[in-house]
Amino acid sequence: MATAHKAFIAGVGMIPFAKPGASAPYPEMAGQAGRLALQDAGIAYGAIEQAYVGYVYGDSTSGQKAVYGLGMTGIPVFNVNNNCSTGSTALFLARQAIASGAAECVVALGFEQMSPGALGTVFNDRPSPFEDFDREAAELVGMPELPLALRYFGGAGQSHMHKYGTPLESFAKVRAKASRHAARNPLALLRKELSVQDVMNAPMLWPGVLTRLMACPPTCGAAAAVLVSEGFARRHGLRTDVFIAAQAMTTDRPDAFDSHDMMNLVGYGMTAAAAHKVYEQAGIGPEDLDVVELHDCFAQNELISYEALGLCPPGGAAAFIDAGDNTYGGRVVTNPSGGLLSKGHPLGATGLAQCYELTHQLRGTAEDRQVPGARTALQHNLGLGGACVVTLYQSA
After folding, report:
1. SS3 sequence, the chain?
2. Which parts of the chain sit beneath pLDDT 50?
3. Which member of 11, 20, 134, 363 lies 3.0 to 4.6 Å from 116 by CB, making a disulfide possible if both were Cys?
4. Residue 20: CA atoms inside 13 Å, Cβ hemisphere, count?
5. Between 86-100 and 347-363, two packed helices, what is the crossing angle to 10 degrees?
6. Contact, 205 vs 151, CB < 8 A?
7. Radius of gyration for the chain, computed over Cα atoms and rounded to the nearest angstrom
8. What's the burial of 279, exposed, middle or buried (CB within 10 Å: 0-12/13-18/19+)?
């Protein structure tokens, strides 16, 4: 998309994520995150021209219920549902509104009030959007007794192990790294530092493929971002220190099925295509990134995403991890927030929580988890079955 107007991140807000059953109801969570973003931006809700509200598990127009606590100003409210990439999809649409000139001040808000346990199907009286994916996964890995997400992403990790000889310890190292980062983040749910051995010794969910600590927990939460045009920011004295330099959304292509590879089935190809578009738009390469928040719903997906995003060559993820190039002091700091593995994954909020983290990193206000000199940041949010949104932020 040709960008006529830059979209600046004027304000961000996020509440601590909580285990299912331990959170406030979704309107309260969403309202709190929205107020924090407005406060951070230094504007009132009356200045907002459009709202893009993301959630997965909720009835239609829950977005209106979520923002009416902020104000009933009659503005358009768009309800967004795109599986695990919902929050970034709301951000994508909000940025398009600014870029096109359709609006000058909008909010992207994401929330989720989740139930305990593995994700499941809600509507069982109609075809599932995953039926083609389930059929392919059944042929490639079997394991029908496993929950859907675990079977898919564990199978993708197993595919990487078979292709490149990746040891299970590499995924454990990803999880241990996430815990070290989360120990610095007061908003992370799981802040206990774990050793590689702790992760390896956790109960096996799939023998030889995945332990319990390699999977992110379901959580409830909310996050928000206020996006403005440069003209609006100047007129109202708002900050213009962080902007979206490039953004791309992709969906599945035939190779998701035709390649007969679990990595592509869970979105490796979508990720690579979106990343390529973003680098091309911004005129940079992955070597120019300082910090990345990527979709680590499982440690397996973080490792695979290193390669899909071009942070290392195909088959090079284990060496990338062993060299410490995914953490402080290495080439690019990945998931300084602790990622989904430590914060949990409230589906609608996840992408906007990533936006919150990267905005603070580029402002230099990330406190104990600050990446020194961060000026270019990449966000990767993946929704199985499917969409992938990759967003590139830069400091002005």
Report:
1. CCCCCCEEEEEEEECCCECCCCCCCHHHHHHHHHHHHHHHHCCCHHHCCEEEEECCCCCCCHHHHHHHCCCCCCCCEEEECECECHHHHHHHHHHHHHHHCCCCEEEEEEEECCCCCCCCCCCCCCCCCCHHHHHHHHHHCCCCCCCHHHHHHHHHHHHHHHHHCCCHHHHHHHHHHHHHHHCCCCCCCCCCCCCHHHHHHCCEEECCCEEHHHECCCCEEEEEEEEECHHHHHHHCCCCCEEEEEEEEECCCCHHHHCCCHHHHCCHHHHHHHHHHHHHHHCCCHHHCCEEECCCCEHHHHHHHHHHCCCCCCCCHHHHHHCCCCCCCCCCEECCCCHHHHHCCCHHHHHHHHHHHHHHHHHCCCHHHCCCCCCEEEEEEEECCCEEEEEEEEEC
2. 1-3
3. 20
4. 14
5. 60
6. no
7. 20
8. buried
Residue showing tokens 């996006």: 227
Smallest CA-to-CA distance from 130 within 386, 303, 395, 302 is with 386
pLDDT, tens only, 284-303:
999 999 999 999 999 999 99
Structure tokens at 243: 């902007």
